[in-house]
Amino acid sequence: MQTKSLPCPTCQVPIDLSSVQWCRCVTKPLSVICPSCNQCFCKLRNFAGRPEWTLALCELVQQQTEENFRRALEMLPVSASPEQRTVLIVDDDEEIRLIAEYTIQKMGFQTATASGAEEALDYVERFKPEIVLTDALMPKVDGRQLCRLIKAADPSIKVVVMTALYTGTRYRTEALHTYHADEYLAKPIDFGRLQQVLQHLAAA
């Protein structure tokens, strides 16, 4: 990255981009936190007139995504899943789908991806995956409603719902009992925990 520091759009104090901290209040680290005013940049939707910050954030996101790949792949041992079960990954964020696909393949599973509920339901109807891993918050039909639809179509399909916002006990209970999810995981996902969950569901 050519520019090493830029002024915060809120307080104008320069931020050292080499040691910036990432915001975790959304489904993935999309933005940064100003160490001076503690402003989370994901709440600043309009960067018009600040092309230097737009470029810097794009570069930071790319660097963080590459680092996520490296960390995820290094921490997971290669393991065989019974009968190479298929996991359908459903998320409207392409980067999250890509990271999840690589890591879950390394766990020993076959994978397929869908960008939303409609695409996911079409895949389920045609190919009957053993496990569906879906984000909770998606446009039109969210992951919990998708879980209910999948279970209504085929109760044997295991569904894991992921969420970054609704992580409380009440939401977990609702997902498991009202929407009939098999597991409810908080983001950012612990890949070790995800591996345990998928292997348990594959063996069930």
Written description of the protein model:
This protein is an alpha/beta fold and 204 residues long. The protein has two domains: 69 residues, no CATH class; 126 residues, Rossmann fold, CATH 3.40.50. Helices cover 40% and strands 17% of the residues. The chain contains six helices and nine strands; from the N terminus they run ββββαβαβαβαβαβα. The strands form three sheets. The protein has a five-stranded parallel sheet with strand order 6-5-7-8-9, with helices on both faces. Strands 1-2 form a two-stranded antiparallel ribbon. Strands 3-4 form a two-stranded antiparallel sheet. Helix 2 links the parallel strand 5 and strand 6. Helix 1 packs parallel to helix 2 and helix 3 runs parallel beside helix 4.
Concise account of the structure shown:
The protein is an alpha/beta fold.
CATH architecture of the largest domain: 3-Layer(aba) Sandwich
The main pleated sheet reads as: 5 strands, parallel
Helix content: 40-55%
Poorly predicted residue ranges? none
Strand order, sheet with most strands: 6-5-7-8-9
Whole-number total of structural domains? 2
CA radius of gyration: 19 Å
CATH class placement of the largest domain: Alpha Beta
Measured between the Cα atoms of the first and last residue, the distance is 48 Å
Count of helix runs: 6
Average pLDDT level: 79
Q: What is CATH's topology name of the largest domain?
A: Rossmann fold
- What is the β-strand count? 9
Structural class: alpha/beta
Cα shape: elongated
Order of secondary-structure elements:
EEEEHEHEHEHEHEH
According to CATH, the homologous superfamily of the largest domain is Response regulator
How much of the sequence lies in strands comes to 15-25%
